[in-house]
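Protein modeling request. Please complete all fields; requests missing the sequence field cannot be processed.
Requester role: graduate student
Desired output: 3D structure, token encoding
Chains: 1
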Amino acid sequence: MRFKYLKKFLEKSTKEQIDAYSRYLHSLSLAALIAVVGMPFSDVEIIMFEIKALALIFISIILLIMGSNLLKERVSG
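Delivered output (77 residues):
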């Protein structure tokens, strides 16, 4: 149900808004990757570091794909 609401919301958005949303998702993706790079310098146990790093990399990839798909759908549609 939430995704249907999100899809309706995005369908009513202008081209500039879609561009802004996709840039925002790409920025969040980059921020997650930067966090992964800085984590080895923190005081986190190695197992927790691996779990957090994998989660941030996964989030980064998902955000990058979401931003790309959002922009691609708007350009083709």
